[in-house]
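Practice set, problem 2.
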Amino acid sequence: MPPRAVSVAGWGLALGSVGFSLVARIVHRGPYYPGFDVVGAANGLFLLSTRSPWAAVREVFYQSRHYSAPFPYFGALSALLPGGLTALCPWEYWAHAVTFVLFGVTLGLIGRACRHACLPIHPMHELAPFLDGIRAGRPVDRSVIVGYYVAPQAFDEPVFTREREQMIRTIRQRFTMELESPADAKYVRFRLGVDA
């Protein structure tokens, strides 16, 4: 099966499973939902209704660091933001909407940060063309790329050992690897040096 078809099938399966999960929850739950879905927003609304905004932020900051309350209960983004939005415009799904938007923003930031600076490991057949592009000066200068690999361990699976060796061999065929980690490091940090 071509890699493109596998990628499309993977995305289709992922989106289909999310869609099925949402439909199953809506059908099964009906108008009801678990209380922990909104406990953060409810606490945020309570704090903002009974304290000044600064006192509410102080309370969230203190409680999240001194007690073992669940994180959505005392969080600026998981409690105060949906609580504040509920105070401005009452809607029982602010917690869900904020969580979804924050998830999307997080994925976008990770994608943006890794767009040109993260070496792809899977699929391995994309590694060599990617490195050849870097040698040619695109899509990014090699000096901004930092790579990591797990140092050999006694319990490594053979498939993992082969993959790591293939990755290192592919890189060393094109560049010198400037190791930046101590010799006994579990995770080896490296930069791409001059052409091999």
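Problem 2, part (b): a different protein.
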Amino acid sequence: MLLHFSRFIDSKRHVVMPPAGRFQRAKDRRPRWIFNLHRSRELHVWPFTIAGRSILIDAMQRSLGANGVRGIALMFFRVRTLEETLPFGAIQLSQTAPVQYQEHDRLKSETELRIAVVPPLVVISIVLSVRFSWLLTILGAIAVGALLVQAFKNTRQRYDLLANAAYLNLIDLPVVDATISGLSDLEPRPSTDGHWIAALIAAFDRRGLYDESDFALGEAQTLDSPQDLLDVIDYLRKYDIDVPASLHAAVERAREDEHRDVTRELIDSVLAEPGSSPPPPIRNSRTEPGSSENEGSTNDE
């Protein structure tokens, strides 16, 4: 009930988002104040604190980095999958760290108890308010709110404990292990950032992680470098993975943006030189008065 509220974010302490994409498109679709309100709401309902989430991402990136994944490709792993599968590794703590497992079990039991008490407490407060006083409804609402807040805090502590255990290698991350297994079979070995991004997509596809593959493929379309996009397409074709038309369109868009940026930088550098002035406007000699053609025609007359 209080689980699976996770989303991809970027925090001030740790960058956890893939490059430029999903949230930028979200900003373009809706007013900025709605976007900020949505982000703020998500920030306070995640089962992880920002510190716990950063620790979990550090554990994932360290494991992938130890197996050769490098650069921006580390940002293309779907963190939500880690959060959803992390509780399944709790049983492993009973063997590797019994004390932490007991703490995890205590937090889980207290959370379930508080949530189980909420429905009967609501019913009792309503029945008593009808028979006695409506003030009992307010007292019941306060008690329910306090129980839910305590349950949510316990859930966050439990998830942070599991994230810390994953960082200390006390529990495994099955999705990361499956991805590493898929990467080990890939030949030729990736050599560029674009190749590594495509290698992750291919590894996801080989291990049946289709949601993760689609996510990484969608985020690849937000790359700014045309060369990285071409590397992604080239590497995917080697493994007979369908390349969507949107990825080819992203290459053209990136080329246009790169050309525009280069042109803007060139103009700015020219204007920044001392004594330089903006270029004069180009006049049409056929229509502008006083042009050479007009003068010639006047002399002929």
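Answer key, part (b): The chain is about 65% helix and 0% strand. Confidence is low (pLDDT under 50) at residues 1-28, 285-301.
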